[in-house]
Design brief:
Elements (H helix, E strand, L loop, with lengths): L10 H12 L3 E8 L6 H8 L5 E7 L2 E7 L12 H14 L13 E3 L5 E3 L16 E2 H11 L4 H18 L6 H13 L4 H6 L10 H18 L7 E2 L9 E3 L5 E3 L7 E2 L1 H20 L6 H15 L5 H4 L1 H12 L9 H15 L17
Antiparallel strand pairs: 1-2, 2-3, 4-5, 6-8, 7-10, 8-9
Helix pairs in contact: 4-9, 5-10, 9-10, 9-12, 12-13
């Protein structure tokens, strides 16, 4: 997966685009790099690395100038392709609102075939995906919560999900910037820990602001602790919870809504699913108890047997804290009891204080702080 794709961009493409934009045949006069000395084809080559280029052309006998901008990949919030698309989109939508700012004239895309086309009239970007049949895995867990029993298929599904994660987590990637970005997003992104704590209503008895702040601070300490471990970067789903997994009548399943990029920490996916066995058990029993204990342990055992990872239980803590904050949130889960919310926040606090996470001693992390 190429995180920094730059296609060829040549004079003919520039000329064709300007002709389509102006509605008249144009004649190129000059192509020059604005932040450097390159001109012509060399300027276009440098443009591929993020240098803006000025193009001077003649149309209907008049001389015109435009500047092409491309956002280059860097380690400051531009690591992924979606970051760079977002940056260009924001520039186009805001330049013209500021007095004296150089005007934004168009929003341009380059197709896979190399053509340069305008998308300036776009208001939103939509994703169209294929349909997959099935029932949400959350329905299985809700049934077990309500009926208090498991079937043989339930154990096989937990093992199938563990095996799936083992498979995708075997794919390595080397990119320190993306590793650090994933850790940074875990703490500071709007969908991460700080975004969650910012959206807890004030005055909640079970979530006082000082406790939420302490969780943030502890999680950020973990970020610094984990920064050197970029060797752990793997292929991940990024939001592997029961509402993003569809099962048919057997073991065949599909996953939905991969989030936050292709690469990350395997503990992200492992924590995201395994905490849900605790979550549904808390709603039934107030702790992790049968039949959820067996499902929870079967998932962990299958994963670790197929993919031994000595570091996993020493790095999973901040991801567990993040997921606990999601599940305890009155915004995301408005019907939960305060007792369940308290235990989830206790869990977040206590795992952040643990050097090693013990999946066989989950109830010990639920005790009041």
């Amino acid at each position: 997966m190429n995180q920094g794709r730059n296609q060829a961009f040549d004079l003919e493409q520039v000329e064709e685009y300007l002709t389509a934009r102006t509605g008249a045949v144009v004649e190129l006069r000059e192509v020059r790099q604005l932040k450097g000395d390159a001109t012509g084809k060399q300027a276009l080559k440098q443009f591929g690395y993020g240098q803006p280029i000025m193009v001077c052309y003649i149309v209907d006998g008049a001389e015109e100038r435009v500047v092409f901008h491309r956002i280059r990949r860097n380690a400051f919030g531009r690591e992924r392709e979606d970051d760079r698309v977002a940056a260009v989109w924001l520039d186009f939508r805001t330049f013209n609102d500021l007095p004296r700012h150089a005007p934004a004239l168009d929003l341009v895309m380059q197709t896979r075939a190399g053509a340069v086309q305008s998308i300036a009239e776009a208001e939103e970007l939509w994703l169209v995906s294929g349909y997959r049949p099935g029932q949400l895995y959350a329905r299985d867990l809700a049934r077990i919560r309500d009926e208090g029993r498991v079937e043989a298929l339930d154990f096989r599904r937990a093992e199938a999900l563990a095996a799936y994660l083992v498979g995708i987590h075997r794919t390595r990637h080397t990119d320190q910037a993306l590793w650090q970005r994933r850790l940074r997003d875990l703490i500071g992104h709007g969908e991460g820990i700080m975004g969650l704590t910012d959206n807890y209503p004030r005055g909640l008895a079970y979530a006082p602001e000082e406790e939420l702040r302490a969780i943030e601070e502890l999680a950020n300490r973990w970020r610094w602790r984990l920064k050197p471990l970029d060797h752990r970067l793997r292929q991940v789903h990024g939001d592997f919870h029961p509402f993003n997994i569809l099962f048919d009548e057997g073991l065949e399943f599909y996953v939905l809504d991969r989030s936050r990029g292709a690469w990350g920490e395997p503990a992200d996916d492992v924590s995201c699913l395994s905490i849900n066995y605790l979550f549904f058990s808390l709603q039934r029993n107030g702790r992790l108890e049968p039949p959820f204990t067996e499902l929870h342990d079967r998932f962990w055992q299958r994963y670790l047997a197929a993919r031994p990872d000595e570091e996993l239980t020493a790095v999973i803590q901040p991801w567990f804290a993040w997921r606990a904050l999601v599940l305890a949130s009155p915004v995301w889960y408005p019907t939960l009891s305060d007792e369940v919310r308290c235990k989830l926040l206790n869990f977040a606090w206590r795992v952040l204080h643990a050097d090693r996470y013990d999946y066989q001693a989950v109830n010990g992390y639920l005790a009041p702080v």
